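Researcher: Final request for today, and then I'll write up notes for the group meeting. The sequence and the SMILES for glutathione follow.
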Amino acid sequence: MSSTQDENKKAIATKRGKLPSKWIVWLGKFVWTNLWHMMMSKLAPRDRSGAYIRPNSEFRNFVSLAQGSSYPPAIGRYQLYVGMSCPWAHRTLVVRALKGLEDAISVSTVSPSPLEGGWILDKEENGCRTLAQVYQLAQPGYAGRSTVPVLWDKNTKTIVNNESSEIIAMLNSQFNQFAKHPTRDLYPEQLREKIDWWNEKIYHAVNNGVYRCGFAQTQEAYEQACNELFATLNEIDTALDSNRYLCGESVSLADVRLFTTLFRFDVVYHGLFKCNRRRIQDYPNLGPYLRDLYQLPGVAETCDIEAVKQDYYGNLFPLNPGGIIPCGPEVSLLEPHSRKKVGHTKMIGNW
Ligand SMILES: N[C@@H](CCC(=O)N[C@@H](CS)C(=O)NCC(=O)O)C(=O)O
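Model: Predicted protein-glutathione complex:
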C-alpha cells in the first residue's frame, strides 16, 4: 500500500472516530423504535394504553349430536390443523389424547414460515400449501388472521370452528361413541361452575396474560399484565396445596387450558415474554402439578418443546431480532411429582 493510500485510510478512520456517537445512537434508537412499533402493531394489535388485544376467532360452528345438526359427529370426517408450538392448538391435542380420539379425528401439522409469515402445511392438502389458503377455501375473501387450531370438515371442505376453547369442549362431549375413554368427562355437570370460574380467571391473567406481557408496547401495560399474571399464579399455587387438580381429584378442561401455558412458561415466556418474577419449577405446587399433567398417559406425546423454542425465539422477530435460540433452560418433566397424595376436599374460589 502506498503512503498516500495509507494516509487517506487514516484520515477516514479519524473522521469516523470523530462522528458524534450520541447522534448515531439517537438515530439508531429513533429508526429502530419506530420500526419496532410498526412491526409490533402488525404482530399484536393494541389499545390506546399499549396493551395487547387478542382478535376474536371467527368460525364458531359446532359439531353436535343434536338432531338436524349440519356437523354431526362421525369417525374420520373431521381433522385438526395444529402447529406444535402453539398453546391454543396444543389444548386440542391434549383433549384428543385424553379422550382417546386418535382414530376418530385426524391431525395435520403446520409450521411457521419465517419468510412469508403465517403457517405452511407440512403436507399439501386440497390444493392448499398455506393455512391462509385453507381459510380461503372455507370462506373465499376471508380477511382475518389464519390461526391454529382449526377444526376442519373434510366432507364440506370448510372450517367448523377455530376457537380452541370451543373445539376442546366438542372433543370432550360430542365424540364419545368413537372415544377410547368415553366416560372420562373433562367438563362434568357438577363441576361446571368451578371450571368456568377458573377458566375465566386463567384465560385473562395467564393464558392470554403471558402474551399481554410479551406483546405489551408500554411499560405500564407490561407491568399491569405481569402483576396480574404472578398474582394469579400465586393463587393457583395456593389452591393446588389441597387439590391435586384445579377442581379436585380429577383432571378437567381447566387443567388442560392451564397446562399448555405452563408447559411453555420456563422455556419461552420467562425469557422472551419477560414473565420472569419466578419460574414454574420454583413454585411448591405448580412445578409438581405441571409434571403430574405431563406424565398423564398420552400427554407427553403431544408436547414438542424444541418446536416451541424454535418458533417463539426464531419467528417473533420484533421480540428477538437476532434470531438466536437459547440453549437452555433444562427442564425435566419426567421427575417424580408426588401429587397423588394431595387432598381434594377443601373448597377453592368464591362459590
Ligand atoms: N383464539 C384462538 C387463538 C389462536 C391463536 O392465536 N393461534 C396463533 C398461534 S399460537 C396463530 O395461529 N397465529 C397466527 C396469526 O395470528 O396470524 C384460539 O384460542 O383458538
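Model: The chain is about 45% helix and 10% strand. The radius of gyration is 24 Å.
Researcher: Thanks, that's everything.
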